[in-house]
Amino acid sequence: MYKLAIFDFDGTLVDSTPGIIDVMKVVVDEYQFEEGILEEWRHLVGVPLPKQMEIIFPDRDEDFHLEVANRYRAIYDTMAIEICPPFPHMKPLLRNLKDAGVVVTIASSKRSNLVQVVIDHHDLNDYFAMVVGAQEVTHHKPHPESVHVTVAKLDIPHEHTIVIGDSTFDLDMARNAGVDAIGVTTGVHTKEMLERSDPTHIVEDLVAVEKIILNGKNGKSV
């Protein structure tokens, strides 16, 4: 059994991907961006918003990146709870991990206050030992800082830690940190995309995630 489970948030614990893409579409339509921008943007879910803008619009200046990011945030912030419904089995998963003594945390590329809003709304505070969001680290996914900060704070060795995420950014973060990882095919990245990051496991839902955390360790089959 793993002692520490570090979960991504969007597309992993909550089914927020459709809502996020809807907000992106509003912004794309408002700015009348060229065809193809939405498709490029949707694959960057899991990257901090300012970095998304830099990737999509490399020839535009920082002021433009900030303008578009702030417009996205203005729309998203009013809908954070509405567009972040828990995935099936999310609450039983958290309860079962807690009962088994597994420490659970979140490492997200979004602002931690928005993660906290959803946690508060669903009365989940008792299940999470800490939340590491965009403001809590200098280097974001796929950099391993979020993992290193978490294991250091909780004093749990890397070898007893596993990362769970729906994107290559999560899985690359785990690999860069030297910890095991579970890829879940519930977000914007396909199984084929996740395989490129060579995670320890790839599964389809949180039921399978729970089984691995409680019964597997360091790549052993469950």
Describe the overall structure:
The chain is of the alpha/beta class. The model is unreliable at 218-222 (pLDDT under 50). The chain is built from 10 helices and 6 strands; from the N terminus they run βαααααβαβαβαβαβα. The protein has helices spanning 17-31, 37-42, 49-56, 62-76, 90-100, 112-121, 145-154, 168-177, 191-195, 206-215; strands at 4-7, 103-107, 130-132, 161-165, 180-184, 201-203. The longest helix has 15 residues, at 17-31. The chain has 2 domains: 4-16 and 85-215, 3-Layer(aba) Sandwich (Rossmann fold), CATH 3.40.50.1000; 17-76, no CATH class. The protein has a 6-stranded parallel beta sheet with strand order 3-2-1-4-5-6, with helices on both faces. Helices cover 45% and strands 11% of the residues. α6 (112-121) links the parallel β2 and β3 (130-132). α1 (17-31) packs across α4 (62-76) and α3 (49-56) crosses α4.
Give the arrangement of secondary structure elements.
Blueprint: E1 4-7, H1 17-31, H2 37-42, H3 49-56, H4 62-76, H5 90-100, E2 103-107, H6 112-121, E3 130-132, H7 145-154, E4 161-165, H8 168-177, E5 180-184, H9 191-195, E6 201-203, H10 206-215
Parallel strand pairs: 1-2, 1-4, 2-3, 4-5, 5-6
Structural class: alpha/beta
Major β-sheet, in short?
6 strands, parallel
Share in helix: 40-55%
Number of strands: 6
Number of helical regions = 10
Low-pLDDT segments, ≥5 res: 218-222
Shape: globular
Radius of gyration, rounded?
A: 17 Å
The run of helices and strands is EHHHHHEHEHEHEHEH
Strand content: 5-15%
Look at the structure and give the mean pLDDT: 95
State the fourth-level CATH superfamily of the largest domain.
Answer: HAD superfamily/HAD-like
- The CATH architecture name of the largest domain reads 3-Layer(aba) Sandwich
**How far from one another are the termini?**
11 Å
Query: CATH top level of the largest domain?
Result: Alpha Beta
CATH topology-level name of the largest domain: Rossmann fold
- What is the count of distinct domains? 2
Q: What is the topology, as strand order, of the major beta sheet?
A: 3-2-1-4-5-6
